[in-house]
Amino acid sequence: MSQVLRVYDLVLEILVAVMFATMNIILMGQVIARYFFQFPFMWAEEVGIYLFIWTVYLGSAIAYKRRSHLLVDFLVNHLPSAPRRCLELSLHLVVMAFLFLFVFLPGLQYAGMNLQVSAFSVSQIRMGWVYASVPVGALAMIVNMIRVIPEILRPASAR
User: Fold this and answer.
1) Which residue among 35, 95, 124, 138 sits deepest, i.e. has the most Cβ atoms within 10 Å of its Cβ?
2) Mean per-residue pLDDT for 124-137?
3) Each residue of 48-86: pLDDT tens digit?
4) 137 C-beta neighbours (distance < 10 Å), count
């Protein structure tokens, strides 16, 4: 199982890096085409936005795995070990339920409803694939939240 999760992490990180690099190359090309050749790419901004959306959703799953999301933990850090673990676990479960019920399920439905809708300037891109970033990102985040739970349950002395 650990090998599968390592491959999962690697694929997720490579995917985010490639999408981010592609987005930057497209947008830099757009700037060069517009200002040096007075010939802008009509599709560049839209494709850049779609790549950014995917990068944000998948990148947030990576951030959760690394426990690098912004949080206010001043009060939590002053709690004794057992109540702190209980509170952290409770918060994780609430966030996981929220992600599943209010992000994953509606995102899946919305992506399915828009599978036949074409993007504005690039008719080859279906909006359903753009909106699929929402349920895919939520699911990746839930998977990584589940992976963090054993770390939360370990006593502070064992971390």
Assistant:
1) 138
2) 96
3) 999 999 999 999 999 999 988 877 777 888 889 889 899
4) 23
DSSP string spanning 118-135? BPSS-TTSBHHHHHTHHH
Q: Is-contact 106 132, C-beta < 8 A?
A: no
Query: Could you tell me how many residues make up the chain?
Result: 159
Q: Which domain does 113 fall in, by range?
A: 2-158
H/E element, 136? helix 133-153
CA distance 144 to 59: 11
For residue 118, what are the β-bridge partners?
126
- Bridge partner list, 126: 118
DSSP H or E segment with residue 2: helix 2-37
Q: State the Cα–Cα distance between residues 57 and 125, nearest whole angstrom.
A: 19
Query: Which residue has tokens 């995102």?
Result: 107
